[in-house]
Amino acid sequence: MENINRSIQCTVEQCRHHCKNYDYCSLNTVQIGTHENNPSMEQCTDCLSFSAKN
User: Fold this and answer.
1) What is the pLDDT of residues 1-54, one digit of tens each?
2) pTM for this entry
3) What gap in Å lies between CA 54 and CA 40, rounded to an integer?
4) Distance CA 27, CA 23 (A)
5) Which of 5, 23, 37, 48 has the smallest set of CB atoms within 10 Å of its CB?
6) Measured between alpha carbons, how far is 54 from 42 in angstroms, rounded to an integer?
């Protein structure tokens, strides 16, 4: 069974770090960033730890 980090909730099933049947991340830590110069909404933020499943 993969490492379920119950401190990091995640619903992005397309990420290789998503815990298959659970809405959690398997990483110990994640990096959050932005693609905007002046972020003002939650849609402006990104999980920079995202890695697409093969």
Assistant:
1) 479 999 999 999 999 999 999 999 999 999 999 999 999 999 999 999 999 998
2) 0.84
3) 33
4) 13
5) 37
6) 27
* Other C-beta atoms lying within 10 Å of the C-beta of residue 15: 18
Tokens representing residue 45 in the block: 């933020």
C-beta of residue 44 within 8 angstroms of C-beta of residue 35? yes
**Identity of the residue numbered 32:** I
Other Cβ atoms less than 10 A from the Cβ of 19: the count is: 19
Phi, psi angle pair for 42, to nearest 5°:
-60, -25
Distance in angstroms (rounded) separating the CA atoms of residues 30 and 45? 13
Q: What is the pLDDT of residue 4?
A: 97
Alpha-carbon 52 to chain mean position: 11
